[in-house]
Structures are given as structure tokens and as C-alpha cells.
Amino acid sequence: MKTLFEGTSKYYAKYRPSYPPEMLEDVVKKFNLNGKGKLLDVGCGPGILSIPLSKHFEEVLTVDVDPGMIQEGKNAAEKMKIKNILWLNKSADNLDKTIGTFKLITFGASFHWLDREKFAKLAYSILPEDGGIFIAWTGHSIWNKKRNNWEEKVLEIIKKYLGNERKAGNGFYQKTADKHEDILKKSGFLKIELKNYPSAPKTDTASDIIKAQYTTSYAAKNLFGDNAQNFEKEVTQELLKINPNNKFLETHVAGSIYAWKN
Length: 262
Fold this sequence. Notes:
The chain has 10 helices and 11 strands. It has helices at 9-15, 21-30, 50-53, 67-79, 116-126, 149-162, 180-186, 206-213, 221-224, 228-242, and strands at residues 38-42, 59-64, 85-89, 104-108, 132-137, 167-168, 171-172, 191-198, 202-204, 248-250, 253-260. The chain has a 7-stranded mixed beta sheet with strand order 3-2-1-4-5-11-8, with helices on both faces. A two-stranded antiparallel sheet has the order 6-7. A two-stranded antiparallel ribbon has the order 9-10.
């Protein structure tokens, strides 16, 4: 079965920006995590959220439809000797109340891909009174962020090879109309807080930038087919014209939504 992120797993953990430490610290404080209870990480990818948060729970259940992501997560957890995570290779669409009760449910750059109304209602029903939801995104996508000159060039080249409409796997990205927080409010969440986390400036090479694009649903390597090598060559050449020393400054703003049942 093809997935939105098919073929991205081997790049994802290394080249996708991680969540800021301050954000993870806030999760622990805001939800009073104390090593008890269970975490459900929906659309977990290779465990970018669930692995660092696992030490704050008795058990962690991760769910992702992409088998490559699940395997990368398992490998990372095994290397770190983390044993309280259960990795479930399953479509999140098939989750229901039988999944159990959780102290916290997290969505790391995944909530917008789901049936949000359905998941908000499901989350409300399987959370205890002091439970909550955490939604996070890295803000790195060159389709959405405020772009500098080299990012404009990379996007221009992606469009040259894949078309002017933003891809989402083998389909096209559909922008959501309602804000996440409005969906949560309709589902009964009484307290909602939004917070942004500007990243520290980071220096990348042309190779880093290409591989970071390969972590996305809009520029996964398999989407380029036989043109992947040509894409890489053109991006490298054009970036080196902009900055011959092969050093490119990147910044982005990660964002989050904290929602409490009560």
C-alpha cells in the first residue's frame, strides 16, 4: 500500500528538523507528566515525538501506516534501549475506543492529514478528565514558510520537476478550511493554548537541503522517478551559484497546540 510518505523514512529522522527542546519541556510541564499513564502518538513517523517523551510515561503506543517509519522508530528505540514503546503499523483511520485510555495523545505533523473531526471526538472520548492533546509541527516546509533566496530557488526547481501544484504523495495537497483549534473546541476541549518556537539558525549544505526535501510528502525522492539524479544535480548547481562556499542558513518557526479536556 502506498503512503503519503513512502520512501521518506530513511531520510526523515536525520534530515527533518526535530522539535525544539523548549517545546518538549513545555509538554511535560503543561500536562504534568510524571512517568505514569500512557501516551498515544498518532502518525508517529520514526518516533520524533514519542521517543523523547517515552521516559515520562509507563507505556507508549505509536501508530503509523508507513512500515518504513515504524521500522526506523523501532531501530532508534532499540539503540537507545527504550523498551516501553509498542510500534503499531496500522492506519490511524481504523482506531476506535477499543484502543484504550491515554493521559496524552500527540500528533507530530500529522493532524492535518487525518479526519480531524473524527479524531478530535475520539480523543475526547478516550482521555481521562485531566488528559489532553498535543499537536506540533516544525514549520520547515518551503511551501508555507517565509522563504529566503535559496529556498525560493529550491521551490522553483521542485515545481519544474513535479508541477506548480503542491504534491501530497501521489495526489495533491488539500488545504484545510477550519483551524485545528476550532475543530478541538467543537469536540469539547475547554482549554486551548497555541505557542510558537522560533528555531536557532542552522547551517546546511546543498546535500542536506536535498535530503531534507526528501523527507516531505511534496518532494519524496520516489516522486521524481528517473529524474531524481537530475533534480539533485540542478539543485546543487543552482545553490552553489547563490553561495559557492556551500553554506546555507536555515531558520523556521515550529508551532504547537495544547488542548485540555478540562
